[in-house]
Amino acid sequence: DTEVTQTPKHLVMGMTNKKSLKCEQHMGHRAMYWYKQKAKKPPELMFVYSYEKLSINESVPSRFSPECPNSSLLNLHLHALQPEDSALYLCASSQVVGNEQFFGPGTRLTVL
Amino acid sequence: QKEVEQDPGPLSVPEGAIVSLNCTYSNSAFQYFMWYRQYSRKGPELLMYTYSSGNKEDGRFTAQVDKSSKYISLFIRDSQPSDSATYLCAMSPNAGGTSYGKLTFGQGTILTVHP
Lengths: 112, 115
Hints:
The complex is a heterodimer of chains A (112) and B (115). By secondary structure, chain A is mainly beta. Chain A is globular and about 35 Å long. Chain A contains no helices and eleven strands. Helices cover 0% and strands 57% of the residues of chain A. In chain B, strand 6 (54-58) and strand 7 form a beta hairpin. In chain B, strands 2, 4, 5, 9, 10 and 11 form a six-stranded mixed beta sheet that branches. A five-stranded antiparallel beta sheet of chain B has the order 1-3-8-7-6, with no helix packed on it. The model of chain B has no long low-confidence stretch (mean pLDDT 93). By secondary structure, chain B is mainly β. Chain A binds chain B through residues 4, 6, 31, 40-43, 45, 48, 50, 55-56, 88, 90, 94, 97-98, 100-106, 108, and chain B through 32, 34, 36, 41-46, 49, 88, 90, 92, 95, 98, 100-103, 105-108.
């Protein structure tokens, strides 16, 4: 299995909602990442987990809360988002931090 | 000035053409170089991954890295309409330091291969 999967594919939420994005990989990778991508822009790194511990937080607002329950799973909890947070949210994994990263298909988030 | 510069295009070529995509960078700490292909509304797909200078070939794709000039290239031979996508270069520094493992992307080049 060489895939990174993400659910849901699409998500529409209001500014007062709480929702979660899920990412899973079964490649035995020990580094996992969250990125945000706006239209016609490259991905922007949000968080890095290494061996289930948060190692990089790119000064992301607290309305985004990452969680890594185990080595295969990565969640991104969303609360009180703003319309400008609408974007494609990408998860990636690599064998360890520094190795090549493999991306999932993304979750397209719309905040109303 | 951006750390990684990539011509956004768009680039339009006929089927069968050789395509050349390029990035320049300013950070001499970059040691790992990647090319990703991204179809519309999909996640980036890793095409090539190279360490330091040199060439790497995989099927119709060839990646070149010239660290002395801080310049990387991706060549696509016998281009196909299915190659139409956005191509992103990305790079990261060697081990050590707070930026290890962080990818710095170019802006992406939009490529269209027409039949």
